Amino acid sequence: MSTQKFRHLRIVGAAGTALVLALTVAGCSTKTSSSGDKADTWKPSGQVHMVVPFSPGGGSDIFGRAVASGIQDNSSAKVTTENHEGGSGAVGYSFIRSKKGNGQYLLAAETSLIALPMTTKLGYTWKSFTPLMQLANDNNLLMVPADSKLKNLKDVVALAKKGKFRMGVSGTSSPDALVANLFQDESKVKFRKVVVQSGGEMVTQLLGGSLDGGILNPGEAGEQIKAGKLRAIGVFSDERLKGSLSDIPTAKEQGIDVSFGQWRGIFGPPDMTDAQIKYWTGVLKKYSESADYKKYVKQNDLVSDVKEPAAFKKYLSSYADQVKQALPSGS
């Protein structure tokens, strides 16, 4: 992996809804031109911006930084990773939308890009952006503090029936929130949901005792599992994970018929040119074939799943139907 340093910026949506709306309106502006863009060939000129729509420390942040590093190792591009957090991802999505046609900007995306516009009136959907490549599928674990008396999902259900289970979720339309909804519906219980800004914050609150449990990706929870500070008591997948997490039973094994994963991929702004799409697809393809990509997948217990633009779009359309079923009724 390249030893070259790249800057990390953190931009917080402090103005909330007003900022989101302002950026959304900006997305309707005239197409931005990028130097070096010709009819058939294009390559970035100057700084490339990898936008992560959540705060540092979570699965999206880990993914965005891994891909940014991979881009630098497989091209001449210089990449800055920026955290545009706020509004459950809306600040980052609206920022990317405002860069219409500008190939210098990339988005580290996942399930929330599909789910959030279904629950919040934003003026756009995932189809408003440019899918470039899916790179992996991620899993969801139910985590509890290491000293918790909860040993399995049946214990969680029993505590929830008493109205006492505090479940961490990062927004109302995040992948973990969707899993929590499915878990509630299947078990006919209600969790006391506590909204956090990212997987990193959820880990902090679990360690601090503010939560009884939370749904995290292996990459978000792995270090704490190894350190013996958090325990995974269930994975929401059809099969058990491989490797060091293979001893975690699936929800289905425990009588909870819920399986829901999330994709991770890279998008660009609206109205990218064919040349821009071709360039980034080529670079991302090289990264997906590299040793660093394989290391990222293994370290974060991901499932490698690479789809180029056409196949990625088809998959996203189908996945959107699954998301609708996982959203609360009335969304």
From TrEMBL:
Assigned keywords, A-Z: Signal
Top-rank taxon, per record: Bacteria
Pfam families listed in its UniProt record: TctC (PF03401)
SUPFAM superfamilies noted in UniProt: Periplasmic binding protein-like II
Segment forming the signal sequence: 1-22
Keyword Signal among UniProt keywords: yes
Coiled coil: none
Family statement drawn from the similarity comment of this UniProt entry: Belongs to the UPF0065 (bug) family.
Protein name: Putative tricarboxylic transport membrane protein
